[in-house]
Amino acid sequence: MSLVEPSHSLGHSFDLRTHAPSSLPEHERRQEQARETKGTQAARAGSGCLASSHGVQDLRAAKRLLVTKGYEAITLEAIAEEAGVNKASTRYYFGSKAGLMAAMVDEIVLDECASIASDVSERMSESERLDSFVANIYRMAMDVEGYSGYFDILPHALRDRHLRQRLVYLYDLWYDWNIEWLGLDGSDPRLDAELRALGQFTAAIADGIAIQAEIHGKGYDPAPALAFLREFLTGVLARMRAAASASPRGH
């Protein structure tokens, strides 16, 4: 596979800032709908479960504490106080800090995935899908507060066998969703290996840009790299569609 050479004009013609949702209430409605769908899929894939409205309130309080005070400040008591709820009910929903961490990992990943899913429509052209996909990678990776919370949890999650397994489930789902958002048929056995590699590659881009944004701070601009990504994906998608057309299913 050869790399597609980047267009020098692409960074000027494709402005990431122009691809924000046009209707915020509609975007939020679709995001909640997508979150429920993705959350159900995630729950079926692993040990996670969808939080009740009370649980969601607790999780949002936990995310606020994580961003403002860090991982060590996350206790069931502190979350109950931040959320303004009875701490007995918080303990009932999550059981322990480990249970809370598992729910938070789900919440962080699913919120981002639901936001991307809510921007994608079956009626979109391939070019519109790519614009939305790349713009959402930009938005997600440049959400420094959101990603820094995830990075705070990550070292602890990797040391916990159950949380690590949960991350494996969630990332496997993320790879599949990336393929879905790009408009490819994830069930096509002729492209199994390439589809998985593409799902992993696009997830790695989002994680990598988020790390660089953390390192470089406010002056970091990933737009040129993402413009290159968009053109690269244009070439890859064209080649994969051509390969699928040339090889009928079952051969």
Can you describe this structure?
Helix content is 73%, strand content 0%. It is mainly α and 251 residues long. It has 11 helices and no strands. The N terminus is likely disordered. The protein has a single domain, classed as Tetracycline Repressor, domain 2. Helix 2 packs across helix 6 and helix 7 packs parallel to helix 10.
Throw out a few tags for this protein.
single chain; about 250 residues; mainly alpha; Tetracycline Repressor, domain 2; 11 helices; about 0% strand; disordered N terminus
The share of residues in extended strands comes to under 5%
At the fourth CATH level, what is the homologous superfamily? Tetracycline Repressor, domain 2
Q: What is the name of the CATH topology? A: Tetracycline Repressor, domain 2
- CATH class category name: Mainly Alpha
Which spans of ≥5 residues are poorly predicted at pLDDT below 50? 1-14, 17-31, 38-50
Order of helices and strands: HHHHHHHHHHH
Q: Helix tally?
A: 11
Backbone shape: elongated
CA radius of gyration is 19 Å
The structural domain count equals: 1
Largest sheet: none
CATH architecture: Orthogonal Bundle
Q: What helical percentage do the residues reach? A: over 70%
Count all strands and give the number: 0
Give the N-to-C terminal Cα separation: 22 Å
Q: How does the SSE layout of this entry go?
A:
Blueprint: H1 10-13, H2 24-45, H3 53-69, H4 76-83, H5 87-94, H6 97-119, H7 126-141, H8 144-158, H9 161-181, H10 192-216, H11 223-246
Helix pairs in contact: 2-6, 3-4, 4-5, 6-7, 6-8, 6-9, 7-10, 7-11, 9-10
